[in-house]
Amino acid sequence: MDVLVSANRNAGQYYMATRPFSDSSVPPVDFITTGIFQYTNFVGGSNASLITLPAMNNTDAMLNFISRIRNTNVTQNPPINVPGDTDINRRVFITLAVNDLPCKNSKCVVSDGFAASLNNVSFVYPHIDVLQAYYSRNIRGVFAENFPFLPPEFYDFTGNLTGVVSAVEVGTRAICVNYGDAVEIVLQSTQMGAGGSHPIHLHGYSFYWVGAGFGNFNGETDPSTYNLVDPPLMNTIDVPGTGWVAIRFFANNPGVWYMHCHLERHTSWGMSTVLIVRNGSTIETSIRPRPSTMPRCHRT
């Protein structure tokens, strides 16, 4: 998070303090980091006392803070262009989970038999990258264009998981949309594994964070709480461990774009996918041709 500060208070020294936020059942080290904001050439003591920070797992405080972030109409920002309700023609509902990965021949594919998933699909990195396969339409079998737009099973995602099967399938499955589609993606955390929040990053796009809430997303009532007036424009969004977030954007950047959790362990376990935005009808709305000097590489 980048912060623009207006130095309009009385000259002096002001404390700054940060604390990690975690709503996982596996808490990190709870360090508080402090600093001082000081006016030039000021000599004297501090003009502000230390602030009592919220608890490290205070989800209400976290959501209250980030919900106050608004898209400001300043020259540095692009004009606001939020897809409206009637614009949306592609909706995707994605659950985030840490799952069990069945082992074969007593040897697990990933460490400790764990996998992470989006809609119960744990991403497999292919021997030929998806972008190269997409460029070279004669390369088959690298990825499938059938990422599920809904989870395979609906249950109490943030509640009791009794009887819910945590096994996951593995595959290289892409989310495919047409150029110009107005896309809404709802990201829903689950209590699978250790639970906890997930910072989700999408390459190639900035998107509008239009909604968030606790518990299970309700497609009938929760959209009425969306902020479609001045939502912040971002490329990474934190999905609270006991809730959901909704993002919207126009798919106007053709190509193959990686979407993943920014916790490296979860990414390595497969909490990722690719968004393929198909070519439009013109050269300007299509992916650029492969450069003649572009190296060709693959894993063996």
TrEMBL record:
Compartment(s) where it occurs, according to its Swiss-Prot or TrEMBL record: Secreted
One function term, GO molecular function aspect: oxidoreductase activity
All copies of domain Plastocyanin-like, residue ranges: 168-280
Keyword Repeat on entry: yes
GO annotations of cellular component type: extracellular region
Keyword Repressor: no
Keywords assigned by UniProt, alphabetized: Copper, Metal-binding, Oxidoreductase, Repeat, Secreted
Alphabetical list of Pfam families matching this protein: Cu-oxidase_2
Family according to the record: Belongs to the multicopper oxidase family.
PANTHER family hit by this protein: LACCASE, MULTI-COPPER OXIDASE
The name this protein goes by in its record: Plastocyanin-like domain-containing protein
Organism phylogeny: Eukaryota, Viridiplantae, Streptophyta, Embryophyta, Tracheophyta
